[in-house]
Amino acid sequence: MWNENKFTQELNIQYPIIQAGMAAGTTTPELVAAVSNAGGLGTLGAGYMKAEPMKEAIKKIKELTDKPFGVNLFIPEITDASEEEIEKANELLRPYREELKVTEPEITKPSTEIFEKQMEIIIQEKVPVCSFTFGVPSKEKVHQLKQENIVAIGTATTVKEANINEEHGMDMVVMQGSEAGGHRGTFSGSFDNALIGTMSLVPQAVDHVNIPVIAAGGIMDGRGVLAALTLGAQAVQMGTAFVTALESGAKKQHIDAILNSTEDQSVITSVFSGKPARGIQNEFVTKMTPYEQSLPGYPILNTLTKSIRSEAAKQNRPEWIHLWSGQTSRLSKRQTVGKMISDIVSQVEDIEKNR
Amino acid sequence: MWNENKFTQELNIQYPIIQAGMAAGTTTPELVAAVSNAGGLGTLGAGYMKAEPMKEAIKKIKELTDKPFGVNLFIPEITDASEEEIEKANELLRPYREELKVTEPEITKPSTEIFEKQMEIIIQEKVPVCSFTFGVPSKEKVHQLKQENIVAIGTATTVKEANINEEHGMDMVVMQGSEAGGHRGTFSGSFDNALIGTMSLVPQAVDHVNIPVIAAGGIMDGRGVLAALTLGAQAVQMGTAFVTALESGAKKQHIDAILNSTEDQSVITSVFSGKPARGIQNEFVTKMTPYEQSLPGYPILNTLTKSIRSEAAKQNRPEWIHLWSGQTSRLSKRQTVGKMISDIVSQVEDIEKNR
Fold first, then answer.
1. What is the C-alpha separation between A45 and A150, in angstroms, rounded?
2. Do B327 and A198 touch (CB under 8 A)?
3. Cβ–Cβ under 8 Å, residues B55 and B273
4. Is the domain of B187 the same as that of B50?
5. DSSP 3-state of A96
6. In this complex, do B2 and A355 lie within 8 Å of one another by their Cβ atoms?
7. Residue B262 shares a structural domain with residue B200
8. Contact B330 A208 (CB under 8 A)
9. pLDDT confidence tier of residue B23, bands split at 50, 70 and 90
10. Read out DSSP for B10-44?
11. pLDDT band at residue B110 under the 50/70/90 scheme
């Protein structure tokens, strides 16, 4: 059977399908629980969450499902930006703030404090799966998770990064192909050279690590799931497909943009957060791209643009919101998680039967 | 059976595997015939060939195989460049020419004359398959091919381009994913937005055209072939995998570079030809990239750099040669075409059996 493998056995779930831990409101406890209840692995995107709201969300998920689920954390980055760089960015952002009537945010120095607290809660709450993006936790932290039987999943965009994950003791690794929507997980080497298509990335990673490989990037239906397993992946991780689910907490403008976009409308841009991410090109991207190289890095720029993006959503200005999307948006549907997963399962089984 | 489908039936061949029509010497009659004799579809890359040498190569292929084969042509582009642009490029290229002792080439205005003669020969010689890159032939030309029972295959990098191919009456279309080595086939819209991964591109094209879709980009072994068919493709086209075949006419330095490269070393660059292409980053790319935007377009820049590249190969200077390669180079092997295809077939059958 296509769904019986190391991944589903180790996690004790029905289907080798992970819902990506997308940050900033998309992964409501309802979405996470719906995915786990449908036989996949739901993931709370806690990258931007403070410890207490994260704890509450975990408790809520536990009320909604008794199946395994995951929490995704961001490895913190201690970026520095000069007063001058920040002032230059504020100058560029001022017209948006004035139009939307939002004030200039204060920049607090990035720290690792929130991450430390998040890790404590993961362990206290015995979250079944903890995944990481933007780097690899220390060997010590990975060891701690293992002692609590928490499965640790990393994110890589090159074979080299997959090797680093394995060396740090991670249990599994998500290989994020260039098709994937949202932030690039690249943490070692150039972002440009790490835009490897899923068709290339998965078999090369499978050949070079001994831990299970999870394919991400461009997968939206049963064809993609079975193709990824054929390449040697033990499971898939899907993001964009879940953003438009009825249980998703994504903003209406974001959902509509995905549903109406074509594969040639998404671009890799760092103008929203300071870190390259794939999203649908809109006015903000077009206008800010000429200044891309001089903007502050992540997470400082993310903080600077945050209120613009959230207020733009409230005032229905999709042209100024980050519209993260992968390259397979023509296959997106507005449907329940249950319908989506049962359609994937039927499609996989149909392909297998008709071969 | 995995290899029984519209594609293999229509072409009357054993396996749904096309060897890409790579230009500039790689696709010797020996390579083309070896692929066709092994049950795939060999293709003469005639993009840069004049009519007479092309005719001779076709005759030679016919001596070496009685199986179907293809010829790939480039849709001509009538690019203009100012004296000033050309002089600026020559200034940048002078140090390479001096070091290699090659002279400045004369630029003849690009014309459609060679293409017209190539088309005449395709029809005279009743070549079984004619594929096209960099655009779509006129409806009249496609009609002519059909009258002679010549199968016409186009190249597309977006769903929109696939639609244009279908509208022009093409019989099949190759969907070139961003993983693919060599020149991008993009002919409508921005090159940057048309870097769609194979995992995304294939199912979206399959859903939007009625002609058979051929998957290209990142496919190197049986896993890739079966994954592409799972996505809905009727066949695959492989380029890089054949460059390192023992029957290939590629330069030794090119073959060695592919065999020793990793997936994160290739980049999209237009510094060799004026048109974006994927190859392994080397000194020429690094040094010329800062001037990329101001260089003349394709095919003018191609003519300007041609003698540098061929002389660099003779003098064993791989740092100045175009080292076209896809993103799955870790899977490349130096082996015969026969071994490569029989390994693909065994691997596909093993995956199917063990499911």
1. 17
2. no
3. no
4. yes
5. helix
6. yes
7. no
8. yes
9. confident
10. HHT-SSSEEE---TTTTS-HHHHHHHHHTTSBEEE
11. confident
Residues B150 and B277 in one domain: no
**Non-local CB neighbours of A186 within 8 Å, separated by 6+ positions:** A157, A158, A161, A194, A276
User: CA of A124 to nearest chain B CA: how many angstroms apart?
Assistant: 39
User: Do the chains contact at A204 and B263, CB–CB below 8 Å?
Assistant: yes
What value of ipTM does the predicted structure carry?
A: 0.97
Burial class of residue B252 (count of CB atoms within 10 Å of its CB; 0-12, 13-18, 19+):
exposed
Contact of A343 with chain B, judged by CB distance below 8 Å, is answered with no
Q: Say yes or no: B159 contacts chain A, CB-CB below 8 A.
A: yes
CA angle (A114, A119, A125) in 5-degree steps: 125
- Check if the beta carbon of residue B225 is closer than 8 Å to that of residue B348: yes
List, for residues A216-243, the tens digit of each pLDDT value.
Answer: 999 999 999 999 999 999 999 999 999 9
Any B CB within 8 A of A228 CB: yes
Mean pLDDT of chain B: 97
Whole-Å CA distances, B54 to B28, B61, B87, B118: 11, 11, 32, 8
Return the biggest CA–CA distance within chain B.
63
Q: What is the pLDDT of residues A71-98, one digit of tens each?
A: 999 999 988 899 999 999 999 999 999 9
Q: At what angle do helices A139-147 and A113-124 cross, to 10 degrees?
A: 20
Tally of structural domains, chain B: 2
Query: Residues B170-229: pLDDT tens digits?
Result: 999 999 999 999 999 999 999 999 999 999 999 999 999 999 999 999 999 999 999 999
d(C-alpha A188, C-alpha B132), whole Å: 39
Please say if the pLDDT value at position B24 is more than 80: no
Considering only CB atoms, A197 lies closest to which of B208, B218, B223, namely B218
Answer whether A162 touches B (CB < 8 Å).
no
DSSP run (H or E) holding B222: helix B222-230
In a shared domain, residues B211 and B257:
no
| CATH classification at residue A180 | 3.20.20.70
B171 and B136 part of one domain: yes
Stretch B294-313: mean pLDDT: 96
B191 touches chain A (CB under 8 A): no
Q: CB B355 to CB A351 under 8 A?
A: no
CB proximity A192 to B under 8 Å:
yes
Which of these ranges, A118-132, B11-25, B106-120, B264-278, has the smallest mean pLDDT? B106-120
Structural domain range at position A43: 1-76+111-247+336-355
Residues B262, B224: one domain? Answer: no
| Partner-chain residue, chosen from B192, B196, B262, that has the shortest CB–CB distance to A159 | B262
- How far is B317 from B310, CA to CA, in rounded Å? 10
Percent of chain B at pLDDT above 70?
100
Residue A241 forms contact with B (CB below 8 Å): no
| pLDDT of A265 strictly over 80 | yes
Chain B residues in contact with A199 (beta carbon < 8 A): 177, 179, 197-199, 217-219, 224, 227-228, 328
Q: Are A235 and B217 in contact (CB under 8 A)?
A: no
Same domain, yes or no, for A71 and A89?
Answer: no
pLDDT above 80: residue A24: no
pLDDT at residue number A186: 98
Whether residues A11 and A153 fall in one domain = yes
Band the pLDDT of A108: cuts 50, 70, 90.
confident
Q: What are phi and psi of A82, to 5 degrees?
A: -75, 160
Q: What is the pLDDT of residue B16?
A: 98
Per-residue pLDDT tens for B69-92?
999 999 999 888 999 999 999 999
What's the pLDDT score for residue B303? 95
